[in-house]
Automatic annotation (TrEMBL):
One of its GO terms (cellular component) is cytoplasm. GO terms for biological process: protein catabolic process. The gene is aat. It is found in: Cytoplasm. InterPro entries: Acyl_CoA_acyltransferase (IPR016181), Leu/Phe-tRNA_Trfase (IPR004616), Leu/Phe-tRNA_Trfase_C (IPR042203), Leu/Phe-tRNA_Trfase_N (IPR042221). Functions in the N-end rule pathway of protein degradation where it conjugates Leu, Phe and, less efficiently, Met from aminoacyl-tRNAs to the N-termini of proteins containing an N-terminal arginine or lysine. Keywords: Acyltransferase, Cytoplasm, Transferase. This is Leucyl/phenylalanyl-tRNA--protein transferase. HAMAP family: Leu_Phe_trans. It catalyses: N-terminal L-lysyl-[protein] + L-leucyl-tRNA(Leu) = N-terminal L-leucyl-L-lysyl-[protein] + tRNA(Leu) + H(+); L-phenylalanyl-tRNA(Phe) + an N-terminal L-alpha-aminoacyl-[protein] = an N-terminal L-phenylalanyl-L-alpha-aminoacyl-[protein] + tRNA(Phe); N-terminal L-arginyl-[protein] + L-leucyl-tRNA(Leu) = N-terminal L-leucyl-L-arginyl-[protein] + tRNA(Leu) + H(+).
Amino acid sequence: MTIDCYYSELYLTRISFKLKTLFLNKIEFHLFFLILVYNHCKGQFDRNPPVQEIKLSDNESYSFPNPETSDDNGLLMVGGELSPHRILQAYKQGIFPWYEPGMPVLWWSPNPRLVLIPNEFNLSRSLKKSLKKDFKCTIDTAFRQVITSCATCSDRFNNTWITEEMIEAYTHLHFLGFAHSFEIWYENKLVGGLYGISLGKAFFGESMFHKITDASKIAFYYLCTTLTDWNFDFIDCQIPTNHLQSLGAKIIDRKEFLRLLEKALVHPTKQGLWRLSF
């Protein structure tokens, strides 16, 4: 990770990023990953049945396999389109999409899961100092800029899971009032931010970026303070990372995560633009 472009492990350390460290180059990784998906579809894993490839039209139901049937890496299903309704149904079941360009959509439900209770955010001394600087935080004023910045940061250009299809799908969800962005500005320039999905009293974090040191952490801090004020139950951080655990996130098993999610979804969704500034 570089200072110029720090993507917090909060959202970006899905299974491929850990796998990539095992290979010498991008070609080796992609060959391995294609073999991995192929083996799933052929049912080569002993613990679970083959990953299901489901192709549904917008007029059909958006059912997913039981999350407990995912493989050891959390891969649950292969195929399907990124329609807004399908994505929302996935999140309601603790499932999220992640795949690379040229691949079918891969749907994941990892075990264990990393969550952060908003009022348990660990504010470090160094971050306190950064908060005193002349940063400004806004919400839902530059969603496309944020998601595009997350996708095109220099150390991840042409090597990102945030595909054009993902950008369009999540921007559509933003227009529908389910996807939200927190933007950090310095001298009228966008220098950091994050985006995610809100359903009930749960927020599903997707990605972060920064161009100035601590800008993404500041966005995350304001996310936590805002969700605390609104009595949100938790932030889904997806894959366990040391970085997020240092900020207060905790590892829980999938059953506990699904129980918390079911409880959070009882509440109405705070749908629409979250136009606030700090």
